[in-house]
Amino acid sequence: MAQTASAPLFDRLPASVKSAKVLKMVGDSFAPYRIVGDDGKTVTGVDADMAKALEPLLGVKVELTIVSNLPAMLAGIDTGRYDLSAGPLLSTKAREERYDILTWMLSKPAFVLPVAAGRKSTKLEDLCGLRMSFPAGSAQEAYAKKVSDRCVAGAKVPLEMVPLADQNATVLAAQSGRADVAGMQLAAALYLQQRNPGKFTIQTDETDGLGVLHQGFVFKKNAELSPVVHDALKEIWKSGEYARIMDRWGLTLTKAPAPLLNPASSK
Q: pTM of this prediction?
């Protein structure tokens, strides 16, 4: 790629990225963000499209590597093996003390029930007493606890927690009967439902009492790269490409009005 006016942010990249002409991104297998093809190498999804949109602005190739789970993603950032984690990771003050989080989408907790199991829900409290699977260490673990606490406060049976390795495992657990409901973010739940018509129902907290979530890329704290990618995302918003990407993957309801760097710390 020509590092000229056609790649306006190239000169601001860290020297190591400019030298390699590669930005190393890491993520796990997590639809609709990262979908690994049958060859085990080809990756499509929202993050792959976002990476392609970043390349002409930065003047480097964005190389997306798939690892096993969230702890492996963050370990790769900590050690410097990767420049950023695809996420999208929930922005919290605690996390922003350790990392820079550049948010680019909104979501909220969602809880998926297999239709075949015959369970129905019309409100969050209908989940009380069920076995809930979720990726261990993820934001969903905290939200599962909030739901369980609400159950107890309403004199209902708390949730039975089923922490698992990753998002795929949580869905399989619900389908196999190891769990009754799978916790995930709304974007992932919508994608799962779209790909499997008639097989899943989605329960959310329509009061938004569990919070609307800001999610995004993860960098080392105070990374030289963070503000550069932030400015690149602003250009992707301005051009309309961001909206096109989100609409393409059925994520219109999760579009953020603007990319934000460490939004939780500014509150």
A: 0.74
